[in-house]
Design brief:
This protein is of the alpha/beta class. It has three domains: 5-95, Alpha-Beta Plaits, CATH 3.30.70.1530; 107-160, no CATH class; 162-439, Alpha-Beta Barrel (TIM Barrel), CATH 3.20.20.70. The protein contains 17 helices and 13 strands. A seven-stranded parallel sheet has the order 12-11-10-9-8-7-13. Helix 5 (132-140) packs across helix 12, helix 5 (132-140) runs antiparallel to helix 13 (361-375) and helix 15 (391-398) packs across helix 17. The longest helix has 18 residues, at 144-161. The two termini are 44 Å apart. It is an enzyme of class 4 (lyase). Keywords: 4Fe-4S, Iron, Iron-sulfur, Lyase, Metal-binding, S-adenosyl-L-methionine.
């Protein structure tokens, strides 16, 4: 469902209009009390003929990472009646208003940038959605004043939607076994590396540490490892929930609908499955045993099941164009992605791309900023890959729309073998605190140090 203008003939809000007019169509966002209630409401509305979409929650809800049910304004009263008849109390119903940002343009700026850029900036001020060609312009401009304005707009949107607090997550890379042949990845099945699998007790020891320092979310990441199948993961998820109550993000690849559903029912909250590129031809090039439509299907299943849905792309992967990146950003918007991981391509030893140059840091940060402008209230990590190319790059990203850092908490004896790319930076809590202070962000209150 896309917000826009509806073409209406005849009577409009009690007024008879001759010919054809355009009326701005209103949309509303229903915010449930929890994930289970959200899925129930979404099911009830659809069964009663109301078209819905699941999107990131509105800024005024006060909830940083949640999913709202989007409906057309013409269906609002019907939806309210359905909620009343089923005795469902919700957290709130909000009009899906444009986010306006007055003050982005002043006379001094207007005299130093192009008219095309000013027109785009005016659309950002008015809260209007950007076209692909406008996103391409923002990604392509070389003008320093324009770039500074892009970063300033992204930073302001971040502060007004998700706040000025650095979100910190702890990641455990629990297996580097993988059955896939992705050409860019250092742990692909054909690469000759030392393999490892952590057992449940090893994982729980790290989870205990993360819980002790106050982190609320643990990220369980691995290659697509058949040994760590759904049943083993369910057992692990249930134990983490029982012993710590932490939120759980899974990043374990493509699975069936039934598997995703079982993992969600066991207690998984979030799922990260990067699209990596929306260019079908390029996707096939870097995933010789992958299927673009299957990846899309998995992302839709995750959304349908009520996961906080994560995706992302790789900037500078061989064969990529600026237009590809712009389409990636539009995909994140249209899919209603909640968490968007954007990192530079870094070659991995032993892969066919081993001798290719890394992705451009400036373009990666610019992509983060434009993604913030387009997608608004989402989690955007200042990625480990950025920190691997430059410590300052991670700080720059936090000043340009990013709001999250992922710590690498894989035990020292394993972490050097989870080399999805060369010279990986092992971001720890000290470096996260340093980055937050340098970027002018507050540390989260849940942190216990």
């Amino acid at each position: 469902m896309r917000q826009g203008k509806s073409k209406i003939r005849g009577e409009v809000q009690g007024t008879f209009l001759k010919g054809c007019v355009y009326v701005e169509e209103k949309f509303y966002l229903i915010l449930a009390k929890n994930s289970a209630q959200m899925l129930l409401i979404n099911k009830l509305l659809r069964e009663n003929g109301i078209e819905t979409d699941l999107v990131p929650s509105p800024p005024e809800s006060g909830t940083v990472c949640a999913i709202a049910i989007k409906i057309q304004g013409v269906n609002l009263e019907k939806a309210k009646n359905i909620l009343f008849e089923n005795q469902i109390e919700v957290r709130g119903i909000y009009e899906d208003k444009k986010m306006k940002l007055q003050g982005l343009i002043d006379k001094k700026l207007g005299a130093s940038v192009s008219k095309e850029f000013l027109d785009i900036l005016k659309k950002i001020e008015d809260g209007d959605e950007l076209l692909e060609k406008e996103i391409v312009y923002l990604l392509s401009t070389k003008d320093i004043k324009e770039i500074e304005s892009i970063y300033a707009a992204a930073d302001r949107i971040k502060r007004e939607t998700v706040g000025n607090v650095l979100e910190i997550r702890g990641a455990i890379e629990f297996s580097n076994y993988c059955c896939k042949k992705c050409k860019y990845c250092g742990i692909n099945s054909q690469n000759k590396i030392e393999r490892y699998r952590m057992n449940e007790e090893e994982i729980m020891e790290v989870v205990g540490y993360l819980n002790k320092i106050g982190l609320r979310t643990v990220i369980l990441q691995s290659g697509e490892d058949p040994h760590w199948g759904t049943e083993r993961l369910i057992q692990l998820i249930k134990r983490i929930k029982k012993e710590t109550g932490m939120r759980i993000t899974l990043s374990v690849g493509e699975k069936s609908f039934e598997e995703y559903e079982s993992l969600k029912l066991a207690g998984a909250d979030n799922y990260l499955l990067k699209i990596e590129t929306t260019n079908r031809k390029l996707f096939k090039t870097i995933h010789p045993d992958g299927d673009f439509d299957s990846r899309l299907k998995c992302s839709r299943w995750l959304k349908e099941l009520g996961y906080i849905n994560g995706s992302g792309n790789i900037i500078g992967i061989p064969g990529q164009t600026i237009e590809d990146i712009a389409r990636d950003i539009l995909y994140f918007k249209e899919m209603g992605i909640n968490m968007i991981g954007i990192g530079p391509f870094i070659p991995a030893k032993g892969t066919v791309f081993e001798n290719m140059p890394p992705g451009d840091i400036d373009l990666t940060i610019r992509t983060m900023a434009v993604t913030r402008i387009v997608c608004k209230k989402v989690y955007i990590p200042s990625t480990t890959a950025l920190a691997s190319l430059s410590k300052d790059a991670q700080i720059r990203a936090l000043k340009a729309g990013a709001n999250t850092i992922m710590l690498i908490n894989t035990p020292a004896k394993y972490r050097t073998n989870y080399m999805i790319y060369n010279d990986k930076n092992m971001v720890d809590i000290d470096s996260a605190i340093y980055a937050a202070k340098k970027a002018g962000l507050e540390l989260p209150k849940y942190l216990k140090l």
